[in-house]
Amino acid sequence: MEQTFIMIKPDGVQRGLVGEIIGRFEKKGFTLKGLKLLTVDQAFAEKHYADLSAKPFFNGLVEYIISGPVVAMVWEGKNVVTTGRKIIGATNPAESAPGTIRGDFAIDIGRNVIHGSDAVESARKEIGLWFPEGVANWSSSLHPWIYE
Ligand code: DAT
Ligand code: MG
């Protein structure tokens, strides 16, 4: 089953949005496979966002991500990468639809509350980076009530 990496950024944690965000993924029917609160250092944040290292906003982005604890998660389910991105909404909250996490809870692109992997391959890489210890091995007993 497909997995994605979801991270509640420091603003989401500080603003008390952890429960709300987890609830949205849970209620959709996805399965939580990994979860931890941690603060990452600059080298780790630079590695996570390595693909964006040439962007003018890179340094500010790294400063933001290391500014406080984040909630790192692995969620599992059919099409969870693409659907997770839809639940999160567009990168710029000014363009995120109401009903999405960024559309409902964010205003500025540099404080957009949440990260989600953009492809199955980047999800695999990000899960390996953030959960080198691996994730939980369990399957929800709700499975037959969510999948036909
Ligand atoms: P996403 O987080 O939607 O996958 P991304 O991978 O292109 O977006 O960029 C990572 C983060 O960098 C994004 O969540 C917010 C920040 N960012 C992206 N584009 C930006 C821009 N033009 N100005 C400032 N910050 C930006
Ligand atoms: Mg991205």
From TrEMBL:
The keyword Transferase applies. Its EC number is 2.7.4.6. InterPro entries: NDK-like_dom, NDK-like_dom_sf, Nucleoside_diP_kinase, Nucleoside_diP_kinase_AS. This is Nucleoside diphosphate kinase. Signal peptide: none annotated. Its cofactor is Mg(2+). Pfam families: NDK (PF00334). ATP binds at K9, F57, R85, T91, R102, N112. Residues 1-137 form the Nucleoside diphosphate kinase-like domain. The keyword Kinase applies.
